[in-house]
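Technical annex, item 7. During the second reporting period the consortium partners agreed on a shared format for inverse folding records so that results from different sites could be compared directly. Each record opens with the tokenized structure and is followed by the designed sequence. A conforming record, contributed by the partner at site C, is shown below for reference.
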């Protein structure tokens, strides 16, 4: 079988890339371990895939600025950012050893009230981001992880503000818009205005994503399970 680490830089920043842990619309995420002799630390390093269009690379670079504004226990912290040895931009985030909120709840057979308590923590983190004029725009279970410590405390962590739109017009940088044919979204959790390809996306899109995620948590299925959820959404 092909080596998933083939062609990947051995080191990015102060960390050594250990293994692949996930893929996204902009690139691949790797577990990295810091080994520069300062202190032990693990991080999730998001590395833009080779050949990505310039507009999405600009969006990825902007993600560093977005995350730098967000300091909340329910949002994965940004640790570092820069350019990898092969020229690709990277973002090092707090590594979250957790699982999607729906899988976490199902595996532990949580009650409805317990699920809603977890969901409240998600809402708190999203509300914090909205107060700082940052919209996530891709809220779904795979971007909401839950980790449980040895003390039994459950911690919700929101991941990936990579396609967020900053609502602050005074920002000193601009995030390029993604062409409609390359929209980065998950239809089952995307608001109708996103599916239609509208560019003026606000906090309402996150509210929709929260509702779809909560629906999945409570019922065990996504709100629209057909082959083309966008057709259903267009009717409403």
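Designed sequence (site C submission):
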């Amino acid at each position: 079988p092909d080596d998933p680490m083939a062609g990947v830089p051995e080191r990015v920043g102060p960390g050594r890339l250990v293994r692949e842990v996930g893929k996204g619309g902009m690139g691949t995420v790797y577990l990295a371990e810091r080994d520069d002799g300062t202190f032990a630390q693990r991080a999730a390093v998001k590395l833009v895939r080779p050949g990505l269009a310039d507009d999405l690379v600009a969006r990825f670079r902007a993600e560093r600025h977005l995350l730098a504004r967000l300091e909340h226990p329910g949002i994965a912290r940004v640790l570092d950012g820069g350019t990898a040895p092969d020229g690709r931009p990277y973002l090092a985030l707090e590594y979250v050893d957790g699982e999607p909120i729906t899988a976490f709840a199902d595996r532990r057979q949580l009650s409805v009230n317990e699920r809603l308590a977890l969901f409240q923590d998600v809402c708190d983190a999203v509300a914090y981001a909205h107060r700082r004029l940052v919209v996530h725009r891709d809220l779904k279970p795979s971007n909401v992880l839950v980790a449980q410590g040895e003390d039994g405390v459950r911690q919700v962590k929101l991941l990936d503000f990579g396609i967020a739109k900053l609502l602050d017009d005074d920002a000193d940088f601009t995030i390029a818009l993604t062409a409609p044919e390359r929209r980065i979204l998950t239809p089952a959790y995307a608001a109708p205005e996103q599916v239609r390809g509208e560019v003026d996306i606000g906090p309402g899109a996150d509210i929709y994503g929260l509702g779809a995620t909560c629906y999945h948590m409570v019922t065990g299925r996504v709100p629209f399970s057909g082959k083309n959820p966008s057709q259903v959404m267009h009717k409403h």
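The longest strand covers residues 15-23. Residues 112-131 form the longest helix (20 residues). All partners now use this format for quarterly exchanges.
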